[in-house]
Amino acid sequence: MAQNTSKRSFASFAEANGTESSSKKPCADGPTLDTIRQLPIETIQDFLYNMCRNEPKIARAVQHTCDSYLAKLAAQPPVDFDHYSKSCWYTLNKKYARLRPSQQFEVTGEIIDELSDARTSMMKEAGPATRFETRRNALEVLRKISKSVMLCQEQEIRHELMNDGMLLADFAESMLELAKGMTRNERERYRVEGLHEKLIELQGECDAGDMEGLADVYAVFDEDEEGEVEENVDGDAEISVESITAPSIRSPAAKRTKVFSVGELS
Prior knowledge:
The structure is a single chain. This protein is mainly alpha-helical and 266 residues long. Among the domains are: 39-75, no CATH class; 82-230. Helices cover 62% and strands 0% of the residues. The chain has helices at residues 10-16, 33-37, 41-54, 56-75, 82-95, 101-125, 132-150, 155-162, 167-181, 184-192, 195-201, 214-234. Residues 1-31 are annotated as: Disordered.
């Protein structure tokens, strides 16, 4: 009887003949993709992280995927949101300028919707995984639109928006999300570019209660400064009382009569 000298495994033989090896059959009790998509993202991330710790092959595959994604992200140009700033400024100051105050009152809901839609669209495009420049641009345009509301030359529209209680608070919440999403180095870069100073100027255009949450945005940047002071103290650096500037007291703002252009909001 002839001896079988074939070195083919049963699995390869079965696959060649259209029969799948039992070891490669999908698990009947395994979750479907739709089931996995229902899990919270944090749960999926924790599970994948633990898999990487225990399976070097999976860890290498995940690292390769991350590197490819980051390289693709770095190659993309930053998103420019300035058209939202110009569009919102036009809506606030020009679009309804010919209407009577009572008519302007009736369209404030439409204005709020337009400004809110612009904010939502920017936040979708400026997620935590995007480039710093994109997130910086979003924060800047949110600041500009907020300032446009505060300096709106149509008094009826400005009055209604400033007293809405939600519009500017939502803008502050989104600004806070962007600021907290930055690394300490990115916030320092934001300062160096002179944008933090413009952000601080925003509080001079409104009363403390007009934009709830704005102080929380400032606090994120203040924590960075406090951390630097603590590092200096640990290094035996001396801080004199004279070097601490007392807060200035702002007198009540006079009624605005000047018409502000888009360029003056930058």
